[in-house]
Structure formats: structure tokens, C-alpha cells
User: What shape does this take?
Amino acid sequence: MKTNHRIPLISPPQAKADILHLLHARDELQQHLFHSARQVRQQAGMALVKLRGVIEISNYCQKACGYCAIRPQNCTLERFRMDTDTIIAVAHDIASEGITTVFLQSGQDPKVDDIVCEAIPAIRELGVEVLLNLGEKSLSTYERYAAAGAGSYILKFETADPILHQQVICSPLSERLQCAEWIKQAGMQLGTGNIIGLPNQTVESVAEDILLALRMAPDFVSSSPFIPNEHTPLQDHPHGSLELTLNAIAVCRLLFPHALIPAVSALEKLEPDGQLRGLNAGANVMTINFTPKDLRDSYAIYSQGRFVVKLDHAHNTIARAGLTPGRPQPDVYLQKPANPMCGQTLDQLFPTRGTA
Ligand code: 5AD
Assistant: This one.
């Protein structure tokens, strides 16, 4: 691709201004950003798309996040919690499709802890890895999950703005960051990320999200557009910008070449082929929903009409992105700098930037 635009140098003093510039990219600069992100993904050995199979195991939740319909204040929702045997049976379905990551997700529900710790060893026997997203827990609970065989845990900080975090997530950002530390301390890989389009969130605040993610040095990172959800305080707030979310995905790929970055289902909810655009912006993960249909409708995280990703949709989307499913093989994973901003410019890290 010929272009006069040049991705600006991202170096520590300039980092925020450069990230902001890229987040605002449209038209030719945006295409160049996406192209650079795909090149970086390829060079990092991360251009195979990792498939995850998610089971939503409980919609009980202690939190009161303003965007989420599984908050306890929503009395319209029928609540469920799967038992160990059901979880293992669904995990079996995931493994028999050749999917190597079983992803257990739930509201923040202390009653799933024992169930999950009992299920994990049986799931591991299927020859798959276990990824969890169960909310804020104590260090000892994270240690129990890790000892049972969970390899990774996603805890999104959602927004790096402490005031907005308190307003929307209704608890301090510092508590969430402490939990993220504990997840690492327990020996699990960490996934984190943000939501784009929260009330009064500026593009500058999204740039701060990316800088916070850098400081956390996660193994996975995600950006998801806000989706207004019935029976929540934010039900009338407009959805997040697809373009800004795609730009955030691409910037994350530049800054985290070896990370797993999902093309989340919320992209597809905003626009047909939204997830295809996510892959084209540098993402390399798709999550297929294996929650049994009768329970899935009660797992109302992305509004009642959420887009449910099935296996054929994922395969189709991956093929149309010119990619193949598989386990990404990071080529320089062991040499990965703890924080790519430390002492190096992006041009030093990714010499092909700006030459597309
Ligand atoms: N819009 C966008 N993201 C949401 N999540 C939950 N509800 C919404 C919503 N309405 C995301 C949060 C959470 C993850 C499980 O789903 O980021 O961490």
C-alpha cells in the first residue's frame, strides 16, 4: 500500500500524543494503521486465530456495573448456576470440536468457586487449557484456581479513569488492579482490557486505558464497544464507536505484538462483519459460545439481542480474513520485553512500521 502517512514514533515522552493520533485515524491513515497491525501480528508469529469455547456458568453477580444486566438489581432475569457435571459435559463438547481453550465465564459469584475448582482438573484431562473470567476474588481463591489447573484469567479494568471506574463499576479501580496483581502472583496468565463508549469517556481516556494496559504487561488484551443493555442504568446511553474500538485493537497490536487480542462478539452486534474488521485490525482470537441455549438467554451481558458466535460463523470469518485457526506461535516470546515502552521506541521494536 502506498501512502504519504507515517505512523508516528511512539516513544515514552510522546506516547500518549501518538496513541491519541492513531485512535483518531480515519480513511487512509486508518487503513495504514490496520495494515501495520497485521504486519506486526504476522512478524510476531501471532497470525493464526486462536479459538476459545466459552461456557457462561452463572449469572449471579455481586457487582452492580452500570452497563451489565446481570447486576443484582435486575429483577427481570432468571438466575442460574451450572453444576460441575454440566460444565464438564459442555467442556467435552468444546474439546471434541478440536478447540483447545475452555473459557469459564460468570458473574462475580462466590458460589462458583468450589464448582470451578472441582471442574478444572476434569476439564484439563480433556487435553485443553482453562481460562477463567469470574471477577474479583481474593489471592487465596486465585491460588486455588491456579492449583486446580487454570492457566489464565481475564479481569478487565474496563476504564483507567478512577472517577469513571467508581461511577460505572461502583468500586475503586485500585481494587481491580490489586486483583490483577494477585492473578499474576498466583501464576496465571493475565488478560485485561477496556470498554469503549462509557458515559463521558473521552478518546484521551481511551489512550490512558492503553497506557494502563502497558503498565500491567498482560498476556491478552481486549477492547470492546459499549453495548446498551436493557434493565441497566446505561440502557439509553448510545453504543460505543466501532471505528474507535478497531483503532484501539490495532494500537494494542502495535504495542503488544505477542498478545492474544480477541475480535469480540460486540463488534458483530454493532455491524455485520464487525468481527471480520476486528481480525483485519490485528485481532487473533475468536470465542465461540457453547452455553446451552436455555441458559444462554439469561446471560444478558451484551443486551438481550446479543450476537451469539457459533463455530461456522467463526470459521467463515477467519477464512474471509485470509487467516486460519490454530495456536499462534510467538516467535520471540521468551525475549518479549516486560514492557515494550521501556527504553525502546516503537520503530526499534517494529522496524517495518511506516514502510507499508
Ligand atoms: N457492553 C460492553 N461490554 C460489556 N461487558 C459486559 N457488558 C457489557 C456491555 N454492555 C464486558 C465487560 C466484562 C466482560 C465480561 O464483558 O468488559 O468485563
